[in-house]
């Protein structure tokens, strides 16, 4: 059992990222039992929830003539335009009902500012607005962050990179993640994470034999 200095951060295990959801991640549902099993190995678990207002800047539908999966230049940089997803208080934004992590201490909601996206659980896409997670984790004495969830190449990767920037040790549990993989984004994400010193393991490495 992992102690309080090691947190499991389970990213965006929400219906809109599951097969059939608004921004479906292929085989995203397969991670749910893996995340449940992992969570039992950790005394300290934090969840994230993508949580957008309906008028969110990342939705293609909010830009005349633009289609999902195109990119657009916004004041803070390039933004992928997504289908409408994870709208606050909708069923698509709910955590999967089979996710069983009763001891999760904190749920960080992100992407709630209408004019800024936030793939990362730590810092919004303007790269300056903190979510507060860095402060929370430091305050409670966390030194290593284990990541799982959806999607590997967006919210998991951006969170892993920001966790490194905040000087946490970081491990991504690969088989407890699934990717969107848009235009080579998954290979690029692993390149960036490896270069930043993110460790990559399989969940079996954490289960006691
Ligand atoms: C995500 C795209 C848009 C994710 C969230 O959870 O990876 N991707 N919003
Ligand atoms: Zn989103």
Automatic annotation (TrEMBL):
CDD domains: nicotinamidase. Its EC number is 3.5.1.19. Pathway: Cofactor biosynthesis; nicotinate biosynthesis; nicotinate from nicotinamide: step 1/1. It comes from Caballeronia humi. Keywords: Hydrolase, Metal-binding, Pyridine nucleotide biosynthesis. Pfam families: Isochorismatase. Belongs to the isochorismatase family. One of its GO terms (molecular function) is metal ion binding. GO terms for biological process: pyridine nucleotide biosynthetic process. Gene3D superfamilies: Isochorismatase-like. This is Nicotinamidase. It is an enzyme of class 3 (hydrolase). The keyword Calcium does not apply. It comes from the Bacteria. NCBIfam families: PRK11609.1. Residues 7-200 form the Isochorismatase-like domain.
